[in-house]
Please model this.
Amino acid sequence: MSDLITTANDKSVELQVRSFTAVKRMAHSAAERMKDEEGQTAAEYLGILLLVAAIILAITKLGIDSKIAGGVQKAVDSITGGGGGGGTKKAG
Model:
């Protein structure tokens, strides 16, 4: 039974060392790729898109979109004379 436990422990240590080595190699490879500027523009565009998506999500979740729409409508009404439709009638 002692040999079984020793073998299991040895295999466990071996797997841990292999995993650590693989992660270290992967991190080094990623660091080397980050130094390369190829594809950097695409990464920057992705970051900007994620930021814009987060802002839009925050605006809709906080209900700010209705306040913005109301403010734009007031500005349009003040420019067009405040008729609330620019002289056209709504059906119904």
User: Anything to note?
Assistant: The radius of gyration is 30 Å. Residues 2-35 form the longest helix (34 residues). The chain has a mean pLDDT of 81.
